[in-house]
Specification:
By secondary structure, this protein is an alpha+beta fold. It has twelve helices and eleven strands. The longest helix has 15 residues.
């Protein structure tokens, strides 16, 4: 297995130079672990002498949907506690008698449930977490389940609530106990982070209230509203932990002395087309990487802060690129170009 390490380093260094992001950490690997990795740029432009490091902590943003929600739903599915194609109202009292009751877990995992496209939690439901939960679970659908594939944060929020109901634990407790701890992902946790960990966290967007960049506090407003823990976002992680997670997905027996609660059957189910003839094509929370064909078998999930991870069962390879591009801009295109070039070099 060969990697274009020099080209990857040049690509990511140019991203620093062009102010796409202050810095980045990355790795490419297989079932044996990390094969190549690197860092570029700085943690914080206000402290130009502090470089990005392999153990820099990143606001995972929507990677939370995979690291916490997808994995937890996989545990429940593997244990026979959740069937993906059964309407939610047949077993979940909170949605019985409400529009969401007709939706299935598979609808939510493929972003085809027809739930509203925007979170807007505070505007719609206020600031009390129980009011938010009630509002989200009782809201009208925006279209019929199974009619269209439309990415929405609400799908993961609802599945996070579902995991809590079925497990009897909060999402952070369940993800920690069944996925993160068994895999040794000791630096993955929901925020807000304690000061000693926040100190090595990559800062994200400027907070207008404090006139400082967010650091150790989730950028995602829904996560902050809900105290740091929710299915949409809120987890923080490091390169090594994401690498362990992806390695485990590729080969659940890959030299690990212990294992997470989800196994190869869940990964296989998730990394196949689950949306039929609908476009855009999706698996379960994962989707084919932009610029690839289905035969390439390269799946991806991104986070709004500038995070991303890819996995290819066919190539037996995975890749991670963690940046804090949100420090500079919400503009998606510059990082999209870097991500696609990085994916091309990591899976060639």
């Amino acid at each position: 297995m060969t990697y274009r390490t020099d080209r990857i380093e040049q690509l990511l260094s140019e991203g620093v130079r062009d102010k796409v992001y202050p810095g980045a950490v990355w790795a490419v690997g297989d079932t044996t672990g990390i094969r190549v990795q690197g860092t570029t740029g700085v943690l914080d432009p206000d402290e130009p002498h502090v470089p990005m490091r392999p153990d820099t902590v990143f606001d995972a943003a929507s990677l939370t949907k995979i690291l916490a929600v997808w994995s937890s739903i996989g545990v429940l599915w593997e244990e026979g506690k959740l069937e993906l194609d059964v309407p939610l109202d047949t077993f979940w009292p909170e949605v019985d008698g409400h529009p969401l009751g007709a939706v299935t877990a598979r609808h939510l995992l493929t972003h085809s449930a027809g739930v509203p496209l925007r979170a807007q939690l505070k505007n719609l439901y206020g600031t009390d977490p129980q009011d938010v939960r009630d509002g989200v679970l009782h809201e009208a659908l925006h279209r019929r389940p199974g009619e269209a594939v439309e990415y929405t944060d609400r799908a993961a929020l609802i599945l996070g609530y579902l995991a809590e109901y079925l497990s009897g634990q909060s999402l952070d407790e369940f993800a920690t106990a069944r996925t993160w701890q068994p895999l040794g992902m000791d630096s993955t946790r929901f925020g807000p982070l304690p000061p000693e960990i926040a100190a090595r966290c990559a800062p994200t967007e400027l907070d207008q209230d404090t006139d400082t960049h967010l650091k150790g506090v989730a950028h995602d407003f829904s996560a902050r509203l809900l105290g740091g823990v929710c299915g949409i976002a809120g987890a923080f992680t490091v390169l090594g932990d994401v690498a362990v997670f992806l390695r485990y997905m590729l080969d659940t027996a890959a030299g690990t002395t212990s294992c997470a609660g989800f196994a190869s059957a869940w990964t296989a189910e998730s990394l196949t087309v689950q949306t039929g003839a609908l476009e855009p094509v999706r698996g379960l929370f994962w989707h084919p990487a932009p610029g690839t064909s289905l035969s390439d078998d390269i799946w991806v999930h991104y986070g709004f802060t500038g995070t991303g991870m890819w996995i290819s069962p066919r190539q037996r390879r995975w890749a991670v690129l963690l940046t804090n591009k949100l420090y500079y801009t919400r503009d998606r295109q510059p990082l999209a170009d870097v991500r696609n070039a990085f994916r091309g070099m990591a899976f060639h």
